[in-house]
Fold this protein.
Amino acid sequence: MRVFSTWNKGLFDSNYQIFTEGKISGSLLFDNWKNEAKGMGLTTNISFKTEGFLTPKTNILNDKNEIIGVITYESWQTKATINMASGEIFGWSFSNSWLSNWSITDFKEKSISYQSKSGTGTIESTASDEIMLLTGIFIRECYARILVVILFLLIIPAFSRSIF
């Protein structure tokens, strides 16, 4: 069963809304200054809490604050691995060099593909797994934030040299 959804987010914020068949089916609300978020689906509420800086990992927590999964990042390769407490393992990666297509899969039957364009996008899923659907967007936003920091760190020194 293929499920098609759309998502959108504000221009200068990191809050996502997911729509399936024209109805809201999920939200992902980010903390402005941390790589933390609250995810809400139709049947699931989860939180993402990131620890560490150089080798970060993100805990996925259920509504009872129990860890149900852990995301580990491969910073230089823009890939991630999700290890769920249930034993399932998922891989996350960008699918193109523009970083506008990405996917998450369990390498068996579950697969979710995402596309983005100017703060909106589409999602195609082979299974209705709200946790993985939200996790795929969360990881993409984390990498987008890292990219902004890197660009900022590169632009500021170049800009300051041209002024002085």
User: Anything to note?
Assistant: DSSP finds one helix and twelve strands in the chain. Helices lie at 130-163. The two ends are 60 Å apart (CA to CA). The longest helix spans residues 130-163.
